[in-house]
Structures are given as C-alpha cells and as structure tokens.
Amino acid sequence: MSIVIRNGTIVNATGAYPADVLVEGERIAALAAPDSGLAEQWAAGAERVIDAAGKYVVPGGIDGHTHMEMPFGGTFSADNFETGTIAAAWGGTTTIVDFAVQGKGTSVLSALDKWHSKADGNCAIDYGFHMIVSDVNDTSLKEMEACIDAGVNTFKMFMAYPGVFYATDGEILRAMQKARDTGSMIMMHAENGIAIDQLVAQALANGQTDPVQHGLTRPPELEGEATSRAIALAKVTGAPLYIVHLSAAHALDAVTQARDTGQNVFAETCPQYLFLSLEDLARPDFEGAKYVASPPLRPKEHQAELWRGLRTNDLSLVSTDHCPFCFKDQKELGRGDFSKIPNGMPGVEHRMDLLYQGVVRGEITLPRWVEISSTTPARMFGLYPRKGVIAPGADADITVYDPTAQQTISARTHHMNVDYSAYEGMELTGQVSTVLSRGRVVVDDNAFHGAAGHGRFLKRDLSQYLVSTTRL
To answer: Coiled-coil regions in this chain (predicted)?
Structure first.
C-alpha cells in the first residue's frame, strides 16, 4: 500500500524540518520538500493521503523495557503481549523489547522458547527480547552465545531479590566476561538486595506494613552503592554495562563519573521517576500500593537531577519498565505486608506523551524527545537504521503527533489491561494522532485499526554505542 503523509514537520534526533513522506509497502520510500511538486505526484497515485498540517511526523517510539505476562510474587503482570502491544500502539510506540525470564535451575534457551510462544502471533507491533539470566553456570554461559545468534544479545541480571533473581558478584563477573568476549551487553538491576531484605524484615518486625515502607526500606544510597559496584565489576572485566530503570541521583552520579572516564556505561530512567514521587507511595488507605515498583519512587528532589541527566546524555533514554498489576486482587495481596505487593506499574501507553511534557516545560528539546524515545533505543539495542528514524529505507514506523491537543490521563480511557492509572487526572499537552507500523495504519481518528499478529520478532544486532577502550 502506498501512503503519502503531507504538510507535517518531520522530527528526527538530528533536527526538525518540513517535508512530505512517501510510504511504499512496509518502508519509507522517499522524502520531499513541501514545495518540490513531488508530493503532488505521489498523492495522485497513492492509496491514502494523510494530512499532517500543524503536526509532527516522528519515528515510532521504541520502549526498550517491558514485562508482558511477567511472573512475579505468585501472579502475572496484567498485560499479555496482545493487550500490551495494542496499548503501546495507542501511545505512539511501534516497537517493544520485552524480557524473557530464566528461572533458577532452568535453561536460558528454554526460557527464550517459552517467551517466543507467548508472543508469536499475538503482538500488534514489532518486538524483540532481552534475556534475564538468573542462574549463572557453564551451561547458561554457553547458551548466551546461542541467544546472540538468535538476535537476543542483552542479558539482564539482578543485584536485588535474593532467592529469586539475585546474582552474586562472582556470578555477575563471569557473565560480564562472557559479554566482553561476545560483544553483548549486561543490563543490571542495581539495588543492594541483601541489605534491603534486612531493612524490610526490620520494618515488618516493628509493625511498619504500609506501602510507603517499600520506598523507605529501599533507600537511594543502596541503589547508588549497587550501581557503583556494578560499574566497578564492568571496569575489571572490560564489559559494557547498561543500568536499567535508574531512579536516584546517587546512582546517576556513579554513571556520570564512569562515562566521564570513557567507560562503556549507559543508563535509562522511566517516566514514573520523572513525574511521581515517594509522596505517591505514602497515599492513604492502601492507595500507595498502586505505586509500588522497584527501584521505588524517590523524593521529588531527584526528579530535577534525572531531567538534567537526560539533557547531558548521562541518561541515554527513557523506557517504561511496564509491568502492570491490577489494584484489585493483585496489589491487594500485600495488605498488611508491603513486601507482598507485586512490584510494577503500568506505563507503556503514555511514555511518548509524558516525555513530550518535557518539551512543553523546557526540560528537553524537541529533537531530544525523539532521541530518548526512539532513536537512541534503536541504536542501543541494534535496530538502527531500520527503526528510530524517518528516512528512506527505514521501516515505516511513523507517529503523527498533534502538539496542541489536550488530554487527561485516566483508567477510564486508557487501553492497558489494568484497573488503575498511575497518572490519573494528569492533564497533558500533545497527543498521538495517527500511527503506522511497517506501513500499516494501526491507530487513526481515535480508533484502533491494527491486529494481533501483525507484529514481527526482531533479531537485533549488537549495540552501536560500544567503543573500544583499548589504546592503539
């Protein structure tokens, strides 16, 4: 199908300019200056013309951190790959990278096969996988090589959750050595889980059971300590390191220092850490349970530091860590014991909109909005230039965005399979108008036109940001 997008302003990470876009089949075929006459010729033969006057034409968003059907605490995250990817499309995101989970005592490759069976034929947009490695041994290290051959070349480990996902420093070191030797990358959940478990036990023993204790027993100092330790292990091994869902200024300081010395260290943050705070965890009548995620929400003063990190590129991108649990029956499992509240929050639908508020408020520039939501994830996770850019030859993953539209976030109108919104009542400027996924219009005129099964699995190349630290 040929589609022409006319009269819009293209915004790439490199800048913004007026141009018309020709889509042929699944890819962008050409761009034309508005006054060149080419667009008129294209429109005459096109099957559809989309008028983007007054709107931005941006590459579809890439959410590099989601958890669909994620097992946690005896339950599963509420969005499956169908509902979660449809919600993502509504919010202008056209690619997700989810996490396959190796449980203790199981095979890495069998876990990857299991996640393929969950996603295959069910995704409305394109998708890839990271691999959670929770059991480091000779077999799993060897299986990491097979994962890389299968297009899964990022491996997440945990310094938190002893007895579930936790890895010792020795296990982390061995995995980092494998990443160094293969060109792959370790992703780290950096919190000192051993110390946190002691603080949790002490709080419960003192009768402190409310959701706010989740934040108070996971202090930012313990995120900073774990981040520094992970960076030290990466330096010793020569491996690249990617810190997931960074929430605290203490951790950001460690990342900034490492990057200033030229180390291959990268970090993401999430919208919840930019817009929500410890005050939300302290909401009365167990409402704070809606905001339980790990790392926890921080005091408000951390937000300004995270926005600064996004401006300076010490924070490379923004993902959601989308892992929704319904308040009723799931979050309520932790009534009377905050440690039993499933950890995770919904967010995949509103990431692009929330980050655009950074443009509205003057925190980031318009091109930086595109960079942290699409282009950098594409390059970080081996998808560029197929994804993450409006350019000839790229997949026609395109979001037409209305910068003047007004909207109010609410669980009554969102499309995620969860019974609350973490941003209920928040008024935003800007909203998705039309979304194309590989040349197919999946969202338009406030209606979903896509289908489960349209999305394809993406075999990813190695990260494009890694530099050699060996002196010539």
So the answer is: none
For domain 60-379, give the CATH number.
Answer: 3.20.20.140
Buried b (16+ CB within 10 A) or exposed e, 63-102: bbbbbbbbebbeebbbbbbbbbbbbbbbbbbbbbbbbbbb
Dihedral sign for Cα atoms in the order 328, 275, 428, 10: negative
Angular region, 186: left φ>0, alpha ψ -120 to 50, beta rest: beta
Closest CA to 95 of 381, 307, 347: 381
The token pair that represents 20 in the structure block? 């018309």
For 428-449, what is each residue's pLDDT tens digit?
999 999 999 999 999 999 999 9
Q: Which residue has the tokens 């979050």?
A: 331
Q: Residue 445: exposed, middle, or buried by beta-carbon count in 10 A (0-12, 13-18, 19+)?
A: exposed
CA distance 384 to 364: 22
Instruction: Please check whether residue 465 is in contact with residue 380, taking contact to mean a CB–CB distance below 8 angstroms.
Output: yes
One-letter amino acid for residue 413 of the chain: T
The alpha carbon of 250 is separated from its chain's Cα centroid by a whole number of angstroms, namely: 21
CA-to-CA dists, residue 85 to 65, 91, 119, 272, 348, angstroms? 13, 10, 10, 19, 8
Tokens coding 304:
């300004």
For 295-348, the pLDDT digits (tens) are: 999 999 999 999 999 999 999 999 999 999 999 999 999 999 999 999 999 999
- Whether the bond between 59 and the residue before it is cis, its omega within 30 degrees of 0, is no
